[in-house]
Structure formats: structure tokens, C-alpha cells
Design goal:
Elements lengths: L9 H15 L3 E8 L6 E7 L2 E8 L4 E8 L9 H8 L16 H4 L5
Antiparallel strand pairs: 1-2, 2-3, 3-4
Helix pairs in contact: 1-2
Length: 112
């Protein structure tokens, strides 16, 4: 996300990640946040029963990098509306990376 708002606001980052978890149907196990001083970035990491969501913000660049990794059939795209509402970016770029493609579980449909 570019041109993002609230990139130094821990409370907004916290509420954004919690909303993304809720709207995606994921199960939150633990949430950790770290700030790096006044007008600096925030890092948030949500450990989920279905994997994780990680948010890293850069205040000086008005940029946010978000990693959403789900298993259990959840749709990571369901996180986007909550994150866009929270940060009101001027531009969003999504890059999808297929993971676990070599895993026997992803090839054996009886295990899904």
C-alpha cells in the first residue's frame, strides 16, 4: 500500500489487523506489535490457527507491506477491505505467491 495513512499509529494498526482477522474468518491465537519511535513504523504480527498476518509500516514513505498466509481454505483477499478502510491508501498492489505447491497435501485432494 502506498500513500497510506496512520503508518505510525499503533492503535490503528492493531484495529486494522484485528478487523482483517475477523472479516476473513481466521482464528487469532496471538497478536504482537512493536513501534519504532515517534513518527516511525509499526510492525504487527498476528499468529493465527490458520497461519499468519504480518504488517510492516514505513511512516517516512507512507508505505505498508502486508503478508497474509492462510491455510484451511480461507481466502486472504477477504482481509483487503478492512486494511484499505484503516489505511486509506492512494494505491494498492497485490502480489500473490502460491506456497506449498510441492506438498503432498496440496496434490492429494482427499487430504483437503
Amino acid at each position: 500500500m502506498w500513500g497510506a495513512q496512520h503508518t505510525d499509529d499503533e492503535a490503528v494498526v492493531r484495529s486494522a489487523i484485528l478487523a482483517a482477522v475477523e472479516e476473513s474468518g481466521a482464528t487469532l491465537l496471538k497478536l504482537e506489535l512493536s513501534t519504532f519511535g515517534e513518527h516511525a513504523g509499526v510492525t504487527a504480527f498476528a499468529i493465527l490457527a490458520e497461519s499468519h498476518i504480518c504488517i510492516n509500516t514505513w511512516y517516512e514513505e507512507q508505505m505498508i507491506a502486508i503478508d497474509v498466509f492462510f491455510c484451511a481454505g480461507l481466502d486472504p483477499y477477504l482481509c483487503l477491505p478492512a486494511l484499505e478502510r484503516a489505511f486509506a491508501p492512494s494505491r494498492v498492489q497485490v502480489s500473490e505467491h502460491k506456497r506449498l505447491l510441492a506438498s503432498p497435501m496440496t496434490h492429494d485432494k482427499t487430504m483437503l
